[in-house]
Specification:
With 425 residues, the chain is α/β, with parallel strands linked by helices. It has 2 domains: 16-177, Leucine Dehydrogenase, chain A, domain 1 (Rossmann fold, 3-Layer(aba) Sandwich), CATH 3.40.50; 198-346, NAD(P)-binding Rossmann-like Domain (Rossmann fold), CATH 3.40.50. 46% of the residues lie in helices and 16% in strands. The strands form 2 sheets. It has a 7-stranded mixed beta sheet with strand order 10-9-8-7-11-12-13. Helix 2 (16-31) crosses helix 15 (403-421) and helix 7 (195-214) crosses helix 14. Residues 79-81, 103, 153, 155, 183-184, 327, 352, 355-356, 359 line the site of glutamic acid.
Length: 425
């Protein structure tokens, strides 16, 4: 096991997808996954790269790179978000697409996995430029997307606004009204109640489930949350509502620490008025994002970027429990260090599966044309997350491994059936 993780030490620096494969290999060996199935899953089923010329506000054309990778469709149509960020590249999108396959399988959703992205800096673009770029991307992906084929959603740098443009453009192209072609839409045009907070809610449900197994009372527990965007802000709020004291929060503009507990409501009000950033927040002492990760707390929620928990800082982490709100926040080299320190890590493909779970509910509601109350959505979500957590926990015990590899095993057990039952190619 350690050799295979060690292999990833060599490769993951250049390749996030190699980091996924390193974990897949460890899980495959432990569970005795068939080589055929492993081969299939090591190779994403479709990779699309497009060039998107967009007229910028200054009258000049800028050409953007757009990607969509469908990793698998063995359990259903492919599902996964679209990310707008400067570091988007084919390797990263491939890794994120594979994680979506595993995430959907862990959450027991009838989906395969996909991911898309555009290499751009959305913060430096006008709304008009972003709309033209989003519509150009949709046109380029018209044969990939489909309500029963490939269903995108928001990810880093995108939100309901972009989803609304995509569904509009797609429906104009096809001449049909097909709201379920994309999820994470605004409520007025077929979005689901509860979708916005869902990823943070999933983090909360997983945290409570883990604390229960660890015999810890939420009212006596502190947490540090890295990231105050869609995932981190809702996670912090919901954890706080369950009695957990949030002692540190951060975003890309700064990190704040307060042993008496950060007033999350005040932080949310502050960001709402402050261009959605924490810059200048006075509800805590300013620390660095690096200090937040290693601060004295019981629960650490990395809910911002990938590769933030590394072999350098893992030895210094003081939390007893890590719940991964972001995709890929922990490098493969950090995994064995956390395991040796007996830190329980609820991995991304379980911890942040709440978002895609409510995306699935949105898709079901769109297909039925019948919409649920927020309470119905939340109740169904919480149950699905609790079942997924229990399955992974049981596999961790059965296979005597950490929760990350157990989550891969849980996913692979389902995907293996899909591949085998659908027959050979
Ligand atoms: N982008 C989110 C994720 O990484 C949500 C995907 C979806 O809802 O399809 O899980």
């Amino acid at each position: 096991m350690s050799t295979q993780i060690a292999n990833a030490v060599v490769t993951h620096e250049e390749s996030m997808f190699e980091a996924v494969l390193a974990r897949l290999d460890v899980a495959a060996k432990l569970m005795n996954l068939s080589d055929d199935v492993a081969h299939v899953l090591r190779n994403p089923s479709k990779q699309v790269k497009v060039s998107l010329p967009v007229m910028m506000d200054n009258g000049k054309i800028q050409v953007f790179e757009g990607y969509r990778v469908v990793h698998s469709t063995h359990l259903g149509p492919s599902k996964g978000g679209i990310r707008y960020a400067m570091d988007v590249n084919s390797d990263e999108v491939m890794a994120l697409a594979a994680w979506m396959s595993f995430k959907c399988a862990v959450a027991n959703l009838p989906y395969g996995g996909a991911k898309g992205g555009i290499k751009c800096d959305p913060r430096s673009m006008s709304v008009g430029e972003l709309e033209r770029l989003t519509r150009a991307y949709t046109k380029a992906m018209k044969d990939i997307f489909g309500v029963n084929k490939d269903i995108p959603a928001p990810d880093m740098g995108t939100s309901g606004r972009e989803m609304a443009w995509i569904v509009d453009e797609f429906n104009k192209i096809t001449g049909e009204d097909s709201p379920g072609v994309i999820t994470g839409k605004p409520i007025a045009i077929g979005g689901s109640l509860g979708r916005d907070a869902a990823t943070g809610r999933g983090v909360m449900v997983n945290t409570l489930a883990a604390l229960k197994k660890m015999g810890l009372n939420p009212n006596a527990v502190t947490a540090a949350v890295q990231g105050f965007g869609n995932v981190g802000s809702h996670a912090a709020r919901l954890l706080n509502e369950k009695g957990i004291k949030i002692i540190a929060i951060s975003d890309h503009t700064g990190a704040f620490y307060n042993t008496n507990g950060i007033d999350i409501k005040a932080a949310l009000e502050y960001t709402a008025k402050n261009n959605r950033t924490l810059k200048g927040f006075t509800g805590g002492t300013e620390i660095t994002n690096a200090e937040l990760l290693t601060c004295q707390c019981d629960v650490l929620v990395p809910a911002a970027l990938q590769n933030v928990i590394t072999e350098e800082n893992a030895p210094k982490i003081q939390a007893k429990l890590i719940v991964e709100g972001a995709n890929g926040p922990t490098t493969p080299e950090a995994d064995p260090i956390l395991n040796d320190k007996k830190i329980i890590c609820v991995p991304d493909i379980l911890a942040n599966a709440g978002g895609v779970t409510v995306s699935y509910f949105e898709w079901v509601q769109n297909k039925a044309g019948y919409y649920w109350t927020e309470e119905e959505v939340n109740t169904k979500h919480d149950l699905k997350m609790e079942i997924a957590f229990e399955a992974v926990w049981n596999n961790a015990n059965q296979f005597k491994t950490g929760m990350r590899i157990a989550a891969y095993i849980t996913a692979l057990q389902k995907i293996e059936q899909g591949v085998k039952l659908k027959g050979s190619y």
